[in-house]
Amino acid sequence: MSLLIDDQKFINLKFHYIETPGxxxxxxxxxxxxxxxxxxxxDPNLKEINTGWKILSWxxxxxxxxxxxxxxxxxxxxxxxxxxxxxxxxxKMKFCLKSWDLKDDNDVDMPLNASMIDNLHHQVATEILEGxxxxxxxxxxxxxxxETGAQAFFEGKKSFNQPPKIVYxxxxxxxxxxxxxxxxxxxxxPDFLKILRLCLTYDGIKRKWDAEMAxxxxxxxxxx
Length: 224
Prior knowledge:
The protein is of the alpha+beta class. It folds into two domains: about 1-55 and about 90-135, no CATH class; about 140-215, no CATH class. Helices cover about 50% and strands about 20% of the residues. It contains nine helices and seven strands; from the N terminus they run E-E-E-H-E-H-E-E-H-E-H-H-H-H-H-H. It starts with a strand and ends in a 9-residue tail after the last helix.
């Protein structure tokens, strides 16, 4: 898989795969490293698909995310908010996937629309979406660390309640100085999350440093 950056908002991704025809449907083996590609580069069943994607801004991500939330009430009458993950991935793919060069059995270009995406082989759809996510989103472990840090900072303790998105936005504006909410919401989601994590990390270290200096009876000093 290759990544070509056209600008900050659009990327092209190329996927290589082996398609093995079966009695009822084909099987697909996606190639994810150079060694495997070299092994199969002369295979007549080796194919490729070129795709173009729009990178989500922080505001666009939040808009899609909010449309995939649903509420459920438990026996104790407590209402919880949950994410429909299947719907979220489906909406993200249909919003972000902007071009492809798929052809039918007669070598005719296949149009890109929601209906065609729905008709993709599930393995193909999963592979290309995950490929897009791998190059544009922070790893799950990093997001979990970010969430934990945000919870500790905003609530003063660990909690399962995630602060409202606007709190993150306001915090970044406050830490970066001079940034407006409108500007922050135009940031690409990966950039926003990296900046937020950096701000949280710096703020946490600074608070710990100040506390240790105060407990030692020394004057507070800046880290920078």
